[in-house]
Design goal:
Layout (H helix, E strand, L loop, with lengths): L1 H16 L2 H4 L2 E5 L2 E5 L4 H22 L7 E6 L2 H10 L11 E4 L4 E5 L7 H21 L6 H12 L4 H4 L1 H7 L9 H4 L6 H21 L5 H8 L4 H9 L3 H14 L3 H47 L8 H8 L16
Parallel strand pairs: 2-3, 3-5
Antiparallel strand pairs: 1-2, 4-5
Helix pairs in contact: 3-5, 5-6, 6-10, 8-13, 11-12
The structure holds zinc ion.
Zinc ion (ZN) binds next to helix 5 and helix 6.
């Protein structure tokens, strides 16, 4: 009896929690895009729908081709929420530092919106980045595209996403520390955050070099060849009349000729020298002086104690030191008025 009475309640409780992750998502439909979001991100969802047409056009002009079908954009509060949601959908190994993720099979761009307010700048960049990935997937279909090119065009589309690392490239080129482009794809998978960050900026720089110096604003050509199933080496050669190795060497040369990092390095070295000078020369001397002053004070105090007269009053010298005036103790009977 008891079991029968409780059953509807148990079922009702299960129904409340069942699919709690996905089903409380709201949806907003716009031209070519559906945004899935939670109530607190209503403004961000409206922003994505409003921006989408322009973002889509931007991506289509950069790499050529057009979206074959509408896409889905899903907003998450944090990287952890996004990772959990991707795991629910069977997508594992999403790095913790990811601000967004594009899954071509689901036609979905996942974006992290850390704050319901003040989101626009970061959100637009991430939206552009992930939309480009979805378009690249549409463009090449089942044909392979190197990760560096996929990330490179996404970075070029979104702008200087990693400007703080931008300076690292000419320095690394100068010392011959750049990763070979043919091996760069492995670097995106490294667990340490700085390695993928450098891989992104290197992919960005090389793709930008191709677009601005070699294929004259038409990266689309390279994607045309990739979409026909050509390898990246062949696609680059057909688009530029230069081999992959030649292009990479030209790019290295261009980076090496950029010496804007030298004044920066000099200022850093100068700052380092000042800190070194302070630590090695000024600080020990100041410490020594303070120690000497302390010792002197202690000595004087000891002297004062010693000079204190038997009746417990300080003598004239100590009084002078304490007050700054010439003070003398009156002798017995000396305070008598003189007449
Ligand atoms: Zn990406």
């Amino acid at each position: 009896m008891v079991r029968h009475a409780l059953l509807p309640w148990i079922l009702a409780l299960l129904a409340v929690f069942e699919g709690a992750g996905a089903q409380d998502l709201l949806r907003l439909d716009g031209p070519g895009v559906t945004v899935r979001y939670r109530a607190r991100h209503e403004n961000a969802a409206i922003y994505c729908v409003n921006q989408y047409s322009e973002v889509r056009h931007h991506a289509e002009v950069l790499i050529g081709g057009q979206f074959k079908a509408p896409i889905i954009v899903e907003l998450s509060d944090s990287a952890e929420t996004m990772i959990a949601r991707c795991a629910e959908l069977g997508v594992e190994a999403v790095p913790e530092w990811a601000g967004g993720l594009a899954i071509a099979e689901l036609r979905t761009a996942f974006l992290v919106v850390p704050s319901p307010h003040n989101y626009e700048w970061g959100l637009r960049r991430t939206l552009v980045h992930e939309v480009v990935h979805l378009l690249v997937a549409d463009r090449v279909g089942a044909h392979p595209v190197p990760r560096w090119l996929d990330e490179g065009v996404a970075q070029v589309a979104e702008g200087y996403a990693t400007a703080n690392l931008w300076l690292a490239l000419p320095v690394r080129a100068f010392f011959g520390w750049l990763h070979p482009m043919s091996k760069l794809d492995e670097r995106f998978l490294t667990a340490l955050e700085v390695a993928p960050a450098l891989a992104y900026v290197q992919a960005d720089s090389f793709t930008r070099f191709l677009e601005q110096r070699v294929v004259d604003g038409r990266l689309a050509r390279i994607f045309d060849h990739l979409a026909r199933g050509e390898s990246i080496e062949r696609a680059l050669y057909l688009s530029t009349d230069l081999t992959f190795a030649d292009l990479e060497a030209m790019w290295h040369g261009e980076l090496k000729s950029d010496r804007t990092w030298m004044p920066w390095l000099c200022s850093q070295v100068g700052f380092g020298l000042v800190v070194f000078f302070m630590l090695v020369l000024v600080w020990p001397r100041a410490r020594r002086r303070k120690a000497e002053a302390d010792a002197r004070m202690e000595q004087e105090d000891a002297l004062a104690d010693a000079e204190e007269s038997e009746d417990g009053f300080p003598d004239g010298r100590t009084l002078r030191r304490m007050t700054g005036f010439e003070v003398r103790r009156l002798e017995e009977g000396e305070d008598e008025p003189r007449v």
